[in-house]
């Protein structure tokens, strides 16, 4: 057996025999290629070449595709109405700002990690965020419970995000919006951090709280007795919260 222009080497060639067998080298030339081409003859009626539009193929892969991201608006006009699908629940002083209820306690790991994830996602947009730590101020906790009254108990667990008086939800809802690429539409129209907005509060340094001026953080105040034989009385300070803190009057 052999191919066109194949050659059987003799014993005088430089290739030694291996196991008593001689090498059979096949050399493919233009003649061989011509014979191979005849194995698949062209059709009698050849079809015209197909034109492939790469833009059509990639139309469903971009983040702006409406079918892949049904909640992502397609135009700047629609971006302003993105929040209308969320329930209208407005925290105090939350009409024109982002309000995020969080906790800084690490007692429940998942809750703390969810707060960190949502905080990073929102602050990464470069907008000012009013963060209300329910572990630092009981009033914030009561405020959140009042906002989600009538809902399940899960809605009282931080993080909880409100944007311009609309209730967005917790960690699952926010992360889902981020993954769909709709997070920019969520805060459309809000001022960016820059220029006049790029500042750190001179009063609290961004913490949002200050030690109480009345009790100096002890949560106690002494009421001096009036008259002879009247003892002084230690009372609970009425000016601070349970942690001896007051809200910063500058940035709160």
Structural class: alpha+beta
Mean pLDDT comes to 77
Task: State the distance separating the first and last CA atoms.
Answer: 93 Å
Q: Count the beta strands.
A: 11
Helix coverage percent: 10-25%
Cα radius of gyration in angstroms: 37 Å
The major beta sheet can be summarized as: 5 strands, mixed
- The spatial strand order of the largest sheet comes to 3-7-6-4-5
Low-confidence stretches: 63-79
Order of helices and strands: EEHHHEEHEHEEHHEEEE
Spatial shape = elongated
- Helical run tally: 7
Strand-residue fraction? 15-25%
Protein name: Glutaredoxin domain-containing protein
Domain Glutaredoxin: 98-168
Pfam families: Glutaredoxin, GRXCR1-2_C
Organism: Salvia divinorum (Maria pastora)
Textual characterization of the structure:
- With 252 residues, this protein is of the alpha+beta class.
- Helix content is 21%, strand content 15%.
- The chain contains 7 helices and 11 strands.
- The chain has helices spanning 30-37, 54-57, 76-79, 109-123, 138-147, 171-179, 183-186; strands at 7-8, 24-25, 87-88, 98-102, 129-133, 160-163, 166-169, 209-211, 220-223, 233-236, 245-247.
- The strands form 4 sheets. The protein has a 5-stranded mixed beta sheet with strand order 3-7-6-4-5, sandwiched between helices.
- The longest helix is centred in the middle third of the chain and has 15 residues, at 109-123.
- The model is unreliable at 63-79 (pLDDT under 50).
- Residues 98-168 form the Glutaredoxin domain.
- It comes from Salvia divinorum (Maria pastora).
- It holds the Pfam family Glutaredoxin.
């Amino acid at each position: 057996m052999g191919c066109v222009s194949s050659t059987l080497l003799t014993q005088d060639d430089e290739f030694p025999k291996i196991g008593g067998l001689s090498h059979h080298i096949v050399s493919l030339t233009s003649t061989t290629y011509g014979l191979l081409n005849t194995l698949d003859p062209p059709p009698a009626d050849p079809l015209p070449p197909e034109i492939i539009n790469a833009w059509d193929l990639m139309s469903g892969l971009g983040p702006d595709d409406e079918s892949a991201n049904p909640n992502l608006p397609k135009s700047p006009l629609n971006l302003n109405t993105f929040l209308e699908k969320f329930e209208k629940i407005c925290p105090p002083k939350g009409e024109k700002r982002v309000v995020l209820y969080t906790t800084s306690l690490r007692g429940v790991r998942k809750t703390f990690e969810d707060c960190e994830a949502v905080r990073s996602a929102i602050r990464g947009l470069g907008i000012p965020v009013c963060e209300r730590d329910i572990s630092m101020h009981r009033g914030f906790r009561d405020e959140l419970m009042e906002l989600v009254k009538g809902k399940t108990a899960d809605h009282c667990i931080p993080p909880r995000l409100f944007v311009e008086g609309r209730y967005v939800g917790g960690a699952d809802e926010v992360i889902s919006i981020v993954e769909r690429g709709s997070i920019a539409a969520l805060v459309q129209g809000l001022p960016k951090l820059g220029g006049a907005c790029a500042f750190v509060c001179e009063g609290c340094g961004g913490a949002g709280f200050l030690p109480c001026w009345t009790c100096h953080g002890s949560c106690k105040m002494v009421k001096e007795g009036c008259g002879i034989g009247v003892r002084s009385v230690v009372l609970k300070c009425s000016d601070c919260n349970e942690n001896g803190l007051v809200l910063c009057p500058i940035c709160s």
